[in-house]
Write a structure and sequence with these properties.
The protein is of the alpha/beta class. The protein is built from six helices and seven strands. It is globular, with a radius of gyration of 15 Å.
Length: 195
């Protein structure tokens, strides 16, 4: 196993029609991480787009991945990526949208339940453990009686889009910090209310 390598997976649905959806915020974060590393995504045999690089010269090596399966079938590509790169779940960070966290908030954890998130459920089932790091990007609950499944497949609102770049940047920073400094240090930074 390569101790210097981390796999960061951004969840979403494939294709341009879904690109701006709330459900695709994980893929947006991983795209930003790859851009920071000047890494280009290429189609990989694991049914994912993959980019490899370092965020700082001589620093931690990363594989950034966006599954090409639909969200609910994310487990297959993730388990294949772990096998391909000879990594176990302790070197996996999954970035995903989270309804139960207010918009513009990032929360971090390792393990636990899937909270009704079908992408997380499928990954835990496919790799045989829920014990992997998660960067949970808050998208908030749907307004009124709007169905949650409908809400996550809508694009961010105009107001949300103004705050989205800083939210994506925070989530990208959080994923990097988990890999470089550990979960506890990252939680201290991102779970402490801003002054």
């Amino acid at each position: 196993m390569d101790d210097s390598l981390w796999l960061v997976v951004g969840l979403g649905n494939p294709g341009p029609g879904y690109a701006g959806n709330r459900h695709n915020v994980g893929a947006m974060v991983v795209s930003q991480l790859a851009a920071r590393a000047s890494a280009t995504f290429k189609r990989h045999k694991t049914n994912a787009q993959v980019a490899e690089g370092r965020l700082v010269a001589g620093g931690t090596r990363f594989v950034f991945a966006k599954p090409l399966s639909f969200m609910n079938l994310s487990g297959g590509p993730v388990s294949q990526l772990l096998r391909f790169y000879s990594l176990d779940a302790s070197r996996l960070i999954v970035v995903h949208d989270e309804l139960d966290i207010p918009f513009d908030t990032v929360k971090l954890k390792v393990g636990g339940g899937h909270g009704g998130h079908n992408g997380i459920r499928d990954i835990a089932s496919a790799i045989g453990t829920p014990e992997f790091a998660r960067v949970r990007v808050g998208i908030g609950r749907p307004p009124g009686r709007q169905d949650a499944a409908d809400f996550v497949l809508r694009d961010f609102s105009g107001t949300e889009r103004q705050a989205l770049p800083s939210l994506i940047s925070d989530a990208a920073d959080a994923a990097e910090q988990i890999a470089t400094d550990g979960l506890t240090a990252a939680q201290l930074r991102f779970h402490t209310p801003r002054a």
